[in-house]
Amino acid sequence: MILVVCDDREFLCAPGDEVHSDLGVLDVPEDVEPGETVETHLGEEFTVRSLRGPDLFNHLERTGAPMMPKDIGLVVGHTGAAAGDRVLDAGTGTGVLSAYLGRLGADVVTYERDPEFADVARENMDLAEVADRVDVRTGDVTESLDDLSGFDLLTLDTQNAPDVVARAPELLVSGGYVAVYSPFVENARAASEAAREAGLADVQTLETMQRRMDFDERGSRPSTSGVGHTGYLLFARNN
After folding, report:
1. Domain 55-237, what architecture?
2. How far apart, in whole angstroms, are the C-alpha atoms of residue 137 and residue 156?
3. Please, what's the b/e burial string for 79-95 (b: 16 or more CB within 10 A of its CB; e: otherwise)?
């Protein structure tokens, strides 16, 4: 899949597709390459782009509120997630985090309790071209913990995250990380307490805030619109 972009308009398509918009009909060539320019029948030019992480965030089919790029960045930065890592994820949802990790080169096993959400996530992994790296499983991860071990990273976006964190020493390799995303502070606190009781090291919880800056002729200031808070992130490390 590729993107065709003109100013603030962008369309997800495949080579050979026919794209209809108010700027005209665009016949995308079969042999089109990223960086090339293609024209609609009205002469409007579109630039061809390959998909990258932010594009996936914008275009994956959503089954709920996906983890924001700023939170994904913190997960990667604080855990050192990298190619070759084995990741156990729970609360797949749209699958944005799993897609990002897969595109980094990690091998991900992710659990989604809702069968319909899991089906959508599998389609999203195909779109992200990481279906060979991301194994979307339907079910509650807590019911499979006895059969899981040897992971470098554990990422959780579920209400029962504290129960999984309590088992982290059995699931992670030595030095492996836990990252828990919680929209509410109560679950973040419960996960933190579970991490300490499990004997994990370097336990810390962060609130992730982000403000966009507005620049105009009057001056510069943080935007007065948008939501700064998305959630809390807990990090801990196995000994």
Report:
1. 3-Layer(aba) Sandwich (3.40)
2. 14
3. bebeeebbbbbbbbbbb
Q: How far is CA 145 from CA 90, 175, 234, in A?
A: 11, 19, 20
What is the CATH code of the structural domain delimited by 2-50?
Answer: 3.10.330.20
152's torsion region: left (phi>0), alpha (psi -120 to 50) or beta?
alpha
pLDDT at 225 over 80: no
Question: Which amino acid would we find at residue 64?
Answer: G
Q: pLDDT tens digits, residue range 188-220?
A: 999 999 999 999 999 999 998 888 899 999 999
Is there a contact between 97 and 74 (Cβ–Cβ < 8 Å)? no
Prediction pTM value: 0.89
Pairing of strands 107-112, 9-13: unpaired
